[in-house]
Structures are given as structure tokens and as C-alpha cells.
Amino acid sequence: MIKYSREFFKKSFEADNMKSAYLSACKWYSTNVLSKAEFKNVHVQFVKEDMSKTEFPTVTVHLFAVQDNEADVMKEHCECCKEMHQTFYINENTNCNRCSAMGFQNRLERGMSIKRDWYRDLLRRFGGMDE
Fold first, then answer.
1. Residues 61-100: tens digit of each pLDDT
2. What is the pTM of this model?
3. Are 61 and 44 in contact (CB under 8 A)?
4. Residue 55 and residue 57: Cα distance in Å, rounded?
5. Are 23 and 43 members of one domain?
6. 101 vs 37: CA distance, rounded Å
7. DSSP readout, 33-75?
8. 19 and 44 together in one domain
9. Do residues 31 and 76 both lie within one domain?
10. Of 21 and 5, the one with more pLDDT
């Protein structure tokens, strides 16, 4: 199954050594994201930055909002399509073979934008995001 996600935050941690930078990143993540019940279905990625580009060892935390349930969004799209078809064409024969599902993609995009903005706001409120 393909998961649809979008990055909503990233933060870098520098330290004297890579282990300390990683532990600082893990502590921040566990305090500000993992321990909060409001964050559901958040994917985290820890990236070691190239030492030639930074003065100190650096670990960057990337947070991604993951679409809750793609099947629910597709079901909603099919229901809307069938309802519109019945309303405008006054019959019950919907040709699902010709579905382009662009509305489905737009609903995913809209849902991800709302979720991403909500998570950014939560991080700000919990004090985990530097202004």
C-alpha cells in the first residue's frame, strides 16, 4: 500500500559528536511529537547531514503528515460522483470505468494541507517549533 504524506516540519541538531546530535534529535522528537496524543500517523525521518557542509555533526529531523486512510477518501469520492451523476443524468448507471479520479487527488491534497497546517500549529503551541 502506498502512503500519501507531506513534510510539515524539519529541525536540525548540532553537537560535538554525531551521537550527541542524534540523542538531542530523539529527545526533541519524543518530547514534542511522540508524547502528544494530538499527533497521529506522523512519520519521522532522521538524516545525518554531510560533514563537509556543516561545521559540527548535524542530524536533521523531518516530520511528515501521513494520510489517515486513503480508502475512506476514495469511497467519499465515489459517493459524490454517483450522487452527481444521478442528479444531472437522472439515472443510476454510473460508468466507473471512465473515472479520472482527479477529484480524489484534490481531496487528498486538501486533506493533507489541512493536516500539515494543523500539525504546524500544534508544534507552535507545544513550544517545539522555533519561531
1. 999 998 767 677 778 878 888 887 777 776 667 777 777 6
2. 0.66
3. yes
4. 7
5. yes
6. 33
7. IIT-TT--SEEEEEEEPPTTT-SS-EEEEEEEEE-S-HHHHHH
8. yes
9. no
10. 21
